[in-house]
Inverse folding.
């Protein structure tokens, strides 16, 4: 009996301790639109993201930056921040996970190019633009691009309009989008049950935004 | 079974328990492993509910801070949401539930002390956030990145302190454990469960007692003898405060007296030093709105909410320990050894948390991502 209780206590403490990731919750909200870029030969060459941060985080991120006009930031003034923004998520693979014909391709994308930040003075929000090029442009009958933060510190969601666009894709390709935010938490349960991403799928994977392209 | 064999059995069981707990910890901490991810509780359950509430409250903060700019009554709403957010948020990482709970179990603390520790560390956490933003953002005009870097340094110091607190506990409790073990071995064989050999037991009692921290009079033996027994130490065996255990009502001097505050201070600092990233973001946002003081008030109200959750969990841990102690009491010295074993285990956990946090194995909240 005593032994069991001793186990229980230590076990309990342990559970309390081991929950950090499971209990993490977002401090940053991103509203995004994405474009999939294709070469004339029908291979996919890159993913272009536009991520708009929430106003609270935007205020935090722009803290201490020099500005000529109060309440406004030019692209140049934001350039150093943009550099930080695209460099820090490197260890999280830029929160962009590519799957080709059902297989996760961990090293499909290289580091971001063509990045810059824009400030919307009316909404007081920042938007980060960047492109993740494919290391080797590839063709795939079915291509999935998922965007999520495995630790769920950042909550990604598609914008209401123009969520995903195919640029120069072959005519027979069609795109569909799965948004966890349609039905936030029940969608999470559903995704959890049918979790297809095997590798490094933390809690955040439950809140993945999936772009699926079919090119029969 | 001979006494020797029994002692060895007990020792191996407690070691196993600690190892098993450690393994459990690591496994659960390694959330990135596919298996763990699969087994993760569905986010739609209790966790999902907690998450959704936190997210909801946090998002409302920004709107309410904006509203407070022009409408004074929005301030009340803001404080209410800050409080609620704090309560739910403490379930998240970085608020020292685990460290405080383990510390309390290892150190034989009372639940009231647990509550005091929880509130003090939450208060310190809010204070660090406010001071950091005040100095970095207002005085120096530092960037978000600089603030993030500062937080990371503070974080490392805080985690190192947790390791130290754990190491110290382990040293004290480990020795107590070994001492009890030795006493148990040298004890005359059959007299374990009889209530008559007060002399022999009291001697052990003192042995087991004299090397422990001052004022931690809440010894397992106390209950083994019945309340009317006169203890070697001069403190009163107070009535049970918790419905489920034998925890003592703390004397005022126990909380604040010599060695009282100081004893808990290391834990308070270790846990409370690290500011919560949510609070920092809220503060900087409030500052950008020209409402820094509103942000400060919101941060402290959040802290009260956080403290309530942490205190509740800490009280649970203390209660569980009290139950264990009651069982230990029925086993006399054998039970004491187990109890010492639990304390050693809890001390190891404190250290383990520190190490895991320091090495980044357990992810805490990220700061300055983006």
């Amino acid at each position: 009996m005593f032994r069991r209780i001793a186990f229980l206590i230590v076990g309990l403490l342990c559970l309390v301790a081991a929950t950090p990731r499971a209990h993490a919750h977002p401090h940053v909200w991103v509203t995004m639109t994405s474009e999939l870029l294709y070469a004339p030969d029908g291979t996919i060459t890159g993913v272009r993201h536009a991520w708009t941060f929430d106003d609270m985080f935007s205020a935090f991120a722009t803290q201490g930056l020099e500005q000529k006009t109060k309440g406004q930031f030019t692209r140049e003034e934001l350039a150093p921040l943009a550099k930080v923004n695209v460099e820090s998520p490197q260890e999280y693979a830029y929160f962009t996970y590519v799957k080709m014909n059902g297989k996760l391709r961990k090293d499909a994308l290289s580091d971001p190019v063509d990045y810059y930040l824009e400030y919307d003075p009316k909404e007081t929000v920042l938007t980060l633009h960047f492109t993740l090029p494919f290391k080797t442009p590839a063709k795939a009958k079915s291509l999935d691009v998922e965007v999520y933060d495995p630790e769920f510190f950042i909550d990604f969601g598609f914008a209401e309009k123009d969520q995903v666009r195919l640029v120069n894709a072959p005519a027979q390709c069609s795109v569909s989008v799965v948004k966890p935010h349609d039905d936030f938490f029940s969608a999470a349960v559903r995704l959890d049950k049918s979790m297809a991403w095997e590798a490094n799928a933390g809690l955040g994977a439950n809140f993945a935004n999936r772009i699926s392209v079919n090119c029969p | 079974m001979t006494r020797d064999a029994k002692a060895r059995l007990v020792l191996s069981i407690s070691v196993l328990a600690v190892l098993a707990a450690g393994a459990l910890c690591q496994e659960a901490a390694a959330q990135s492993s596919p298996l763990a991810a699969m087994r993760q509780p569905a986010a739609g359950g209790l966790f999902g509910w907690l998450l959704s509430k936190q997210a909801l409250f946090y998002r409302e903060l920004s709107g309410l801070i904006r509203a407070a700019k022009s409408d004074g009554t929005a301030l009340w709403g803001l404080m209410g949401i800050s409080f609620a957010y704090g309560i739910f948020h403490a379930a998240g990482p970085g608020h020292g539930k685990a460290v405080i709970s383990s510390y309390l179990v290892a150190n034989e603390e009372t639940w009231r002390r647990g509550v005091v520790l929880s509130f003090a560390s939450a208060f310190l956490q809010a204070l660090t956030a406010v001071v950091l933003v005040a100095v970095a953002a207002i005085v120096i005009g530092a960037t978000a990145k600089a603030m993030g870097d500062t937080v990371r340094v503070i974080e490392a110091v805080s985690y190192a302190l947790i390791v130290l607190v754990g190491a110290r506990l382990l040293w004290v409790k480990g020795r107590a454990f070994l001492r009890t073990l030795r006493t148990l071995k040298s004890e005359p064989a059959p007299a374990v469960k009889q209530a008559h050999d007060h002399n022999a037991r009291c001697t052990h009692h003192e042995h087991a007692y004299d090397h422990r921290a001052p004022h931690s009079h809440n010894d397992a033996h106390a209950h083994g003898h019945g309340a009317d027994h006169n203890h070697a130490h001069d403190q009163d065996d107070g009535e049970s405060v918790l419905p489920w255990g034998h925890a003592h009502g703390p004397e005022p001097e126990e909380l604040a007296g010599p060695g009282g505050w100081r004893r808990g201070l290391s834990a308070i600092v270790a846990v409370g030093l690290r500011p919560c990233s949510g609070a920092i973001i809220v503060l900087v946002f409030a500052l950008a709105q020209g409402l820094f003081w509103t942000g400060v008030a919101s941060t402290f109200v959040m802290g009260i909410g956080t403290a309530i959750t942490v205190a509740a969990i800490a009280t649970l841990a203390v209660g569980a320990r009290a139950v264990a102690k009651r069982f230990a009491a029925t086993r006399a010295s054998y039970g004491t050894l187990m109890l010492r074993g639990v304390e050693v285990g809890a001390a190891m956990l404190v250290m383990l948390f520190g190490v895991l946090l320091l090495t980044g194995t357990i992810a805490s909240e990220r700061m300055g991502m983006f």
Remarks:
- The helical segments of chain A are 2-18, 20-23, 55-62, 75-87, 184-193.
- Chain A has five helices and eleven strands.
- Residues 25 and 153 of chain A are 6 Å apart (CA to CA).
- The two ends of chain A are 63 Å apart (CA to CA).
